[in-house]
Design brief:
The complex is a heterodimer. Helix content of chain A is about 35%, strand content about 15%. Chain A contains 18 helices and 21 strands. Chain A is an alpha+beta fold. In chain A, strands 16, 17, 18, 19, 20 and 21 form a six-stranded mixed β-sheet that branches. In chain A, strands 1-2-5-4-13 form a five-stranded antiparallel β-sheet. In chain A, a hairpin with a 5-residue loop joins strand 14 (about 370-375) and strand 15. Chain A has helices at about 5-25, 35-40, 65-80, 100-110, 145-155, 225-240, 250-260, 260-275, 285-290, 305-315, 315-325, 355-365, 390-400, 430-440, 445-450, 510-525, 535-540, 545-550, and strands spanning about 45, 50-55, 60-65, 80-85, 90-95, 125-130, 170, 185-190, 195-205, 215-220, 325-330, 335-340, 350-355, 370-375, 380-385, 415, 455, 470-480, 480-490, 500, 505. Chain B is globular and about 65 Å long. Classes of the chains: A alpha+beta, B alpha/beta. Bound molecules: protoporphyrin IX containing FE and iron/sulfur cluster (SF4). Protoporphyrin IX containing FE binds next to loops of chain A.
Chain lengths: ~550, ~170
């Protein structure tokens, strides 16, 4: 993974020092909350219902064991012993005192971490495929480009006061596990006709109140032009993005109001106008330096089959199920990627205790080449694991109560914090997610249903990605009472689709039974077990599912 | 309100003349972009220093033919979170090579100063009794930058390359 040099280190330390000064000015009353807000926001500090929240950047979701242990230590020392892994591959702490934040940032800086640009109207933490470097279908590792974008965007003087926040995701797999089509800018690494690797450049995706699937502005842009082309896009957005209404300020609205052709014309004009001295200087030697940190680790030569692994699966149904649901193929024989679903029944999705973090760190160090990833499904992934070590890993996960075997299944729900933590919420998300999880409490039933993505948001801001769930659930407020609208047919992968709202909202207690009926309808309608929920819905349409949804009413 | 030029408090000798109002015969005056574009012949013939105030939506490119005759360009921060003037300043300095004063007005706050300096502002109207000291500390808060900008082209990418080349010698 990437390691800081003296420049990176200096920047992060100077930032921590600067923020310490800002917090001091705030605590002394020299800085009004109104003026402190944009500063704390660009440092990932939100004011929530009960306390300040700190969001720490985990660039493109990758952590070492040492970093994970510091995250655990912060949870213990400054929070209530846990943290929350987010859909943007970051971690949030919900109970840190403002006065402690500078110390937390220093601790983070000691392990090459920070909270820079994790909130505010700037370019946010770059996200990527959690299986980068391990998966079968990627044409190249996208992480060097994530790191290059991280550096280029950090404290960018021109793009620190954008109309709205700005999210960039990069993927390099045929299967898009980074949801690049629902980001402000999505970069999908592809070959051009000559076989060179560059980026499909996608702009204007996003969820929130007006969801859009991003549009392709360039089918292919060369690596050496990437940062300049990004600058051209950012400048057009900074100058022309709407600032009169924060709900219309995202780049998706600009692209939509101008139309793709006009947007593209403006970007191309700006790009063509760049003088040689305005171009970002990114020497090939620098790209090579950064790429070297992501070189494939020294994998052992192993046979594709592992007796230990076969015996593990044969030993119990519980283990067989976990192996079936939580492992992903690896490009090197004898290796596999492990999904740790942070979604046991009855817990806020994405939460992990400090003990669990330490257990994850230990596993990462002993068995997983010190490479730990946070997936946007709010899960933890060990991308590089030997099949032979799976039994030991499973035992260690089980000891830490991290052995939920539901990765990618109905109970592996993405949910935002909702009314329990968030001051924008209309409704609770966690409890409704927990009730839906209970629908899938029987593992046999859950396996029978198979792949199913259920996403829950507590309000229209869509932090829980309800627009891209196969089943989406959205909390709405009706005269002070919590209601939930249900959406069907969304997906975040390379076939990205915005889900469709089905109709009037349901009461809290009606949601889980309604979803059960929808799932039963799928089981009745599917061709056979190989046809997934989303594919059956694609084949027969949403009407029969809608009928099932409201069948009790 | 104090005006800082290169970090020092200076007297403001400029007067803004609203559209439609008569120009005073002497002195340094600032006019809107619209007025400048329609009256530039007369304005430049006055042989006095001339400044232009750009609205946030104005395109700095329109001034390109006149930049060596303009002494001041005023850019605005209607709210500190509105960063359009950063792009305007970068365009003026880096694309069009403007060398005169670029002045920030409006809601100019301590923590925006560094971004302003980086983007090419050399003057700010900054309301604080300790304006000079604050400016100096904001200007020096960071020593490394990942991007080239109007203030320096020595980005971290460039410095690393230089170090590599030196090591190879
Ligand atoms: C609890 C405090 C939180 C608040 C006040 C909050 C607020 C918001 C708001 C206002 C938006 C909409 C922004 C827009 O459309 O421009 C948003 C979007 C988003 N939030 Fe949160 N959020 C919170 C927590 C979280 C958490 C915990 C996560 C991750 C699990 C998260 C993930 C996201 C994502 C991914 C989006 C992007 C949707 C898009 O692309 O438009 N948020 N949030
Ligand atoms: S979706 Fe709404 S309720 Fe949920 S975290 Fe985001 S802003 Fe809060």
């Amino acid at each position: 993974m990437y390691r800081y040099d003296e420049f990176d280190d200096t920047l992060v330390r100077e930032r921590a020092k600067q923020f310490r000064g800002q917090v001091e000015r705030r605590l002394k009353g020299e800085l009004k909350e109104e003026h402190f807000k944009p500063l704390r926001l660009q440092n990932g500090v939100y004011l929530q219902l009960h306390a300040y929240m700190l969001r720490v950047a985990i660039p493109y979701g990758q952590l070492s064991a040492r970093q994970m242990r510091v995250l655990a230590e912060i949870a213990d020392t400054y929070d209530k012993g846990y943290g929350h892994f987010t859909t943007r591959q970051n971690i949030q702490y919900n109970w840190i005192r403002l006065a402690d934040m500078p110390d937390v940032l220093d601790k983070l800086a000691d392990v090459e971490m920070h909270a820079i640009q994790t909130s505010g109207n700037c370019i946010r933490n770059v996200t990527s495929d959690h299986l980068a470097g391990a998966n079968l279908d990627e044409i190249e590792d996208p992480r060097p480009w994530c790191e290059i974008i991280r550096q280029w965007s950090t404290f960018h003087p021109e793009f620190s006061s954008l109309p709205r926040k700005f999210k960039i995701a990069v993927t390099a797999g045929e299967t898009d596990r980074a949801a690049v089509r629902v980001h402000d800018i999505g970069l999908h690494m592809k070959r051009n006709a000559e076989g060179r690797i560059g980026f499909e450049f996608i702009v204007g995706g996003g969820l929130g109140r007006t969801p859009y699937i991003g549009l392709t502005v360039r089918e292919w842009i060369a690596k050496e032009d990437l940062l300049d082309y990004l600058e051209a896009n950012m400048r057009v957005y900074n100058r022309h993005g709407r600032r009169d209404n924060k709900y219309k300020a995202r780049i998706k609205i600009l692209v939509n109001e101008l139309g793709l052709e006009e947007y593209k014309r403006e970007v191309e004009e700006e790009f063509a106008a760049q003088n040689s001295w305005e171009k970002v200087v990114l020497p090939q030697a620098e790209v090579d330096r950064i790429s070297a940190y992501f070189a494939a680790p020294a994998f052992a030569k192993l046979s594709a089959a592992s007796e230990a692994f076969e015996a593990f699966k044969a030993a119990s149904r519980e283990q067989a199920r976990w192996a079936k649901n939580n492992l992903r193929p690896h490009r090197v024989p004898g290796y596999i990627s492990v999904h740790v679903a942070l979604k046991p029944q009855g817990v806020a999705p994405g939460d992990a205790t400090s003990d669990q973090m330490r257990a994850l760190a230990d596993i990462g160090e002993r068995y997983a080449l010190d490479d730990i990833r946070v997936a946007h499904e709010q899960d933890i992934v060990f991308p590089h694991v030997k099949l032979d070590d799976v039994p030991a890993i499973y035992a260690a996960l089980k000891a830490a109560d991290l052995h939920a075997s539901n990765a990618g299944m109905g109970s592996d729900i993405i949910a935002c914090p909702g009314l329990d933590y968030c001051n924008l919420a209309n409704a609770r998300s966690i409890s409704v997610a927990n009730e839906i999880q209970a629908v899938f409490a029987d593992p046999e039933f859950e396996d029978e249903v198979g792949t199913l993505h259920v996403n829950v948001s507590g309000c229209i801001n869509a932090c829980g990605h309800h627009h891209v769930g196969h089943i989406g659930v959205l909390g709405v407020d009706k005269k002070g009472e919590e209601f939930y609208q249900v959406l069907f047919g969304g997906r975040a992968d390379e076939k990205a689709t915005i889900a469709t709202i089905q109709g009037p909202g349901l009461r809290h207690e009606e949601v889980a039974p309604a979803i059960r009926r929808v799932v039963d309808r799928y089981l009745a309608l599917r061709r056979d077990r190989s046809e997934k929920f989303i594919d059956t819905m694609g084949r027969v349409g949403q009407a029969p599912f809608k009928e099932a949804l409201y069948a009790a009413a | 309100m104090p005006l800082l030029k290169d970090g020092k408090v200076v007297d403001d000798v400029w007067a803004f003349v609203e559209d439609g109002h008569e120009l005073s015969p002497g002195g340094c005056i600032v006019v809107t972009l619209g007025r400048f574009l329609s009256e530039h012949d007369q304005l430049l013939a006055r042989n006095r220093s001339i400044g232009v105030r750009l609205a946030n939506a104005d395109d700095p490119k329109l001034l390109a033919p006149f930049l060596d005759q303009i002494h001041l360009i005023e850019l605005q921060f209607p709210k500190y979170v509105d960063g359009r003037a950063f792009s305007q300043a970068q365009l003026l300095r880096r694309r069009h090579g403007y060398k005169g004063e670029i002045r920030a007005t409006g809601q100019v706050l301590h923590d925006q100063l560094r971004l302003m300096i980086r983007s090419g502002f050399d003057a700010v109207v900054f309301d604080d009794p300790n304006a000079e000291a604050i400016y100096a500390s904001a200007a020096g808060e960071f020593t490394e930058f990942y991007q080239a900008a109007a203030d320096t082209t020595d980005s971290v990418f460039v410095k690393r390359q230089r170090a590599r080349e030196k090591a190879a010698e």
